[in-house]
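Hey,
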Amino acid sequence: MNIKFKKLNKTIVKCKKCPRLTNFIKKISSEKRKQNINEKYWGKPVTGFGDTDAKLMIIGLAPAAHGGTRTGRAFTGDKSGNFLFQSLYSVKISNQNFSEKINDGLKLNSTYITNILKCVPPDDKPMNNELSMCSNYFIKELDNLKNLKVIVALGKVAFDNCLKIYKKRFKIKNKFQFKHGKKYLLPDNRSLIACYHPSPRNVNTRVVTSAMINQLFRKAKKIAKFWLYHKNMA
């Protein structure tokens, strides 16, 4: 990991700028979930992870209460992450088809995974001031990823909030519609692709299938122009 990301991630982990979120994380980490009662929760903001020379970024809205907030890594230790990494492995973006804990050997191929909001919000509904406060971290991640070509937004809320940040930053007025697989060119010449969120609800109702997500990530890889599966993935 490069120096800029190390410095940024240290700042993110120590952040307590949103009291409501800080208190909610403490509540989750102390009360815990029955099946995780004997585990020690991460209980802090969750940074992004992956290849800091990435051409592809995958974003969600926020860490899961008993996923990232428990394990300390985005899309790790929850059902959404399980489904996502089965697809990422299938299309050779990850070296394994699961993401269970920080030291499970997971490596990503030219890909960085993060959330727009670094803390889990109550009822998965962040307040506007919380999103605004945390957007600075997401902007720094975008700036630090010098080779970034494609952003895949998992879910409409992540898609909308990513666009909100871009619109504010670049003063764009174009209308963007969330439609699975739809690609938009952003003002910094990066592409944004909308993707249904791999939540259990969407998977169980077949709103999204493995075939759909696999096809979308193959498209993202083609746009980002990377094909080699590196042995030394970060």
